[in-house]
Structures are given as C-alpha cells and as structure tokens.
Amino acid sequence: MNYAVELTDVSVTFGGLHALNSLSCTVPEKQLRGVIGPNGSGKTTLLNVISGVYPASKGEIRLFGDDITQTKSHLRAKMGVVRTYQDASLIKELTVLENVMLGLIPTTRQPLFHIAFRTPRYRATESEMKGTALEALEYVGIQFLADKKGDELSGGQMRLVEIARALAARPKLLLLDEPAAGLSLIRIDEVKELIRKINEDMGVTIILVEHVLNMVMTLCEEITVLVSGEHLVSGSPESVQQDMQVREAYLGKSAVQ
Amino acid sequence: MSKSFNLNTRNLRYLLYVAFLALLIIAPWVLNPYKIHVLNTVIINIIVILALNLVMGYAGQFAKATVAFMGLGAYMMGLLVTKVDVSFWLAWPAGAVFAALAGTLVALPTFRLKGLYLSIMSISFVLIVHWSFVHLRWVGGASGFFVPTPNFGGLPIERSHGVYLLSVLAMLSAVWVTRNLVASSFGRSLLCLAEREIIAPGFGINVFRTKVTVYTLSGLFAGFAGGLQAINLQFVDPENYWLLQVVNQLLMVALGGVGSILGSILGASFITVLIEALRVFKSLWEFAIGALLLITIIFFPRGLAGILENWFPSIKERRHGP
User: What pLDDT, on a 0 to 100 scale, did the predictor assign at position A254?
Assistant: First the structure.
C-alpha cells in the first residue's frame, strides 16, 4: 500500500511538555482520516508537525515516500501539503478572491522582475491565478463572495473561503483543523458534504481533526484517537466507538466501569 | 435616477492621478524657483514614503531606517561624483544599489527580531549611519559637502528644471512599480506577513526571503531619492539623515495612510508643505508635527487616504491584477 503520510516515533516537546510522545501512524493515499481526542491530546500539534509549523524533536516524517523531517514549512506547502486553521485565517486587507489567490503561491511562479514591470508574463500568471481562484470559489459554492473583504464574512463563510483557498492549489494532502468549529448544524452538514466531495472527486488525502464526533464518525473510513500526545488506537468508526480505552479517555474511568 | 458620469468605478482614482500629473507638468512654468524647490522636495519625499510604506505599511515591519538608506544613497552618489569624478548618471544608480545592499543588511536580523526590538534596531542603524557621516573625515564630516547638479547633455532644459523633471520621472516610476508590486503575489504575501506571519509558510511563502526582498527594494527606492535630494539641494548634509527626519517620515506615513500609495502621496505632500510653511516660526513646526502625529494616530488610524476611501470606496487600491 502507498502511504501519504508515515510518522515513525515522532515526538514534539515544548520545554518539558510532550505535546506528541513517540507517535507512529500511517495514512494511506486518498484516505479520509479522522483524528479525535480530548482537549490537549495533541491533535493540532499533529497537523503542525506534518505541515512543518513545528519541527519534530525526534522521529521521522515521510510524505508520499519522501523523508520530509528536515524540510522547511514553505517547501512542504510546495510539495502539496495544505492546511486550514482553527480560527479561519483570512487576511482582512484582502478580498475573498485575493485570499484564495494567496493559496496559489505554491503552484505559481511570479518572478519579481515581471511583477515590477508588469510584463506579459505577470499578466498571464495573474489572470490564470484569478481564474483558478474563481473556480475554487465556485466549487465551494461561494463565488458571489469574491469581492467581499475578509472581515465582512460570517464565521461559516470564512470556513468555506478557507477551504476554497486550500483547494485552489490542488493539494495532495489536505489537513483540516476543526472545520466545523462554531458552525450551526445546517452549516456542519454542508461542510461535511464538501469534505466528502473533495475526497471522492479529487482523490485528495485528508486528515480531519474535529470535535464534532458525529461528523467524524459518519465521514471517515478510519479514525485515529490521540490521548495525551500518544496514539491510543486507530480503526473503523465502529471499532473506535466500541473501544473501552477510548470510552475511558473521553468519559473517565468510573463511567466505563 | 440616472447618472451621466459614474464615479463608482475606478474613474475617480484616475481622475485624481491625471489632475495631479497635469499640475506637475505645468508647475515649472507657473511657479517661482523657491516653489519649484519645495515641490521637488515633495516629490522626493513621495519616493521615500513609498519606500517606507512598503516595509512598514504593507509588510507590517516596524523598521524605519529609510532615512539612513537615503543618506547612504546621497553620500555614495556625491562621493563618486566629487571624489572619483564619475558621471552623475552612473553615480546615482550606484548610490541606490549601495543603499539597497544596506537594506539587505538591515533585513538579516529580522529573522530573529520583531516589533519593538526591530524598531530599536532600525533606529540604531540610523544613528550609526549618521554618526559615520559626521565623524568620518573623508566623507565630508559634520559640515557635509557640495554636489554639482548633473549635466543634461544636449537637452534644451534649464538646470533646475532638469532636476525637477528627473524627480517627477523617478517619482512616477516609483508609484508605478509600487502599484505593480502591491497587485501581485508578492504584495499579497507582504499583507499576509503584516497580519499573520505565523501562517505565511503554510501558503508556500518563504518569510525570510520575502522580508529581505522588501527591505532591499525599500533601500533601493530610498537610495534613488537620496541622490535626487542631494542634487536638488546641491549639497549633502548629514543633518538631513537624522532622527528628526525619522519622525517626519513616520508622520507622513501615519497622516497619509499606512499601506497605501495614495496615502504616501498625500502624507508626503501635506507634511513637506507644512514644514516649509512653518519654518519661519522657528521651532513651532516641531510642536505642530508632534501634535499632528498624536491626533492622526488617535482619530484617523487610516490617515487621509482612509478618510477619502470612506467617501469614495472606488479609490481603494487593488491587490490583484492584471
């Protein structure tokens, strides 16, 4: 089997705190993998160490077979790793369209000389980016927001823009950090269907970190449970739900007994 | 209700640009030499404020070393012309490139420094450069040195008009290039750095390289402006590259509008003219400027350009092309 991500013995430490503790885990290509766990269990740290925001203190990270443990974050983005953030990270000074165009930097070369003197090459790359960004907005169903500023949107719209921005660059690995946080039930269903569509239509490997358990259980074929920075168990939604250790981690020991 | 003339698109901005340009071109025929000199100072300051706004406004870096870059450009140009006997037309770009290299140098510590510390570092750089101008005897010392105005060859223009027209040309180029930079992935990357540097690498932005690039560009612009200032004054004076100018330039950025080309133009024009108008009242203008800076920061955080944009939303800058 080909793996999109292989983590071997990965630790991330901040001072004395083990945010991730010797975590080993593999995600096959094109899988939609859910990651759950109580607060502070290291879910976001897992996304950060894969996207390169934090270096791994120990261990090895492979991306589609290549060792990327030492690779800088912006180069991982160029290799097709794209992520979203818990607080939708739109740039307020930019319009929605321009925010999505920001996501196209990994796949577009626009040399400074051509920008400064507005050469035909600049015009070509710029209008190509614009077209791709509009397509991404359309795919997500929010092309009518293109000219709004980043701070004129509702929370749900921001999430969708963020997903459009992530998609625009045609990622190979999409890391979603709580895309449903703070959304109404109807919006959650919309986002859920969107994630399913991205995974099925585009064949993008997705790692979904989410607190809305219902969403993860119905969406993902395999779920990884983290507790205190350690890999507790991975398996199908049913097997994870049955697992006594998982129940213990979420509900406490006494509730399970 | 029908509108015969639509101001809601980009018309208004172009109207402003055209009016501004027309005034610039007819100016030498209408104004006396003193007023041309003041106008020339305005134009040179616009270039410097664009340079400062690129780093401070767009990239959100609290570095204010453009004064030093200006000085380095002026000194390098002046020394090449007076001591090595190089033609102004070679010495001017050489000075600008020298200032750009200084920009690169100042950018290196930004890998570690942010906010207040970056601000302190850039002020220290201004002080060190000023100290060198004053204390190194072979660069002219505290009294500075004279610079001849360039030879415009066979062109049938008066010397002072020549310097003026050259400044106008340089300023228009600076505005055009800045406008191009802002409406590109580079410009959008700068805004991302300003608002949330931490997420920039996730978009494939090489944060360090982007910062080095914007500081270098800022140095280049300021270096060109420094050379122009020297030939406009026909003199290189170390006191023109000191802390007072840092404050003046900050005020131009703040009053005009942070991260705005129109703001750079308005801020540089307004403050330069104000300083000239209040010069007769001895040190009153220092007080006026301090008070103005406070009022702007508190009541108009987006400056004059911000006020205009509220009235006419169509003049807002575009951050994408083509």
Answer: 67
Q: Report residues of chain A scoring pLDDT below 50.
A: none
Question: Is it true that the peptide bond before A38 is cis, omega within 30 degrees of 0?
Answer: no
Main-chain phi, psi angles of B187, to 5 degrees: -60, -45
Q: What is the domain partition of chain B in residue ranges? A: 1-30, 31-315
Q: Which amino acid is at B303?
A: G
Interchain pair B204, A130: CB under 8 A: no
B9 contact A CB<8A? no
Contact B196/A89, CB-based, under 8 Å? yes
Q: What is the pLDDT of residues B52-96, one digit of tens each?
A: 999 999 999 988 899 999 999 999 999 999 999 999 999 999 999
- Predicted TM-score (pTM) of this structure: 0.92
**Coil, helix or strand at residue A6:** strand
Neighbours of B281 (CB within 10 A): 10
Q: In this complex, do A73 and B201 lie within 8 Å of one another by their Cβ atoms?
A: yes
B31-315 in CATH: which number?
Answer: 1.10.3470
Assess B158–A contact: CB distance below 8 Å, yes or no: no
The complex scores an ipTM of: 0.92
Which residues, in sequence order, are bridge partners of residue A129?
Answer: none
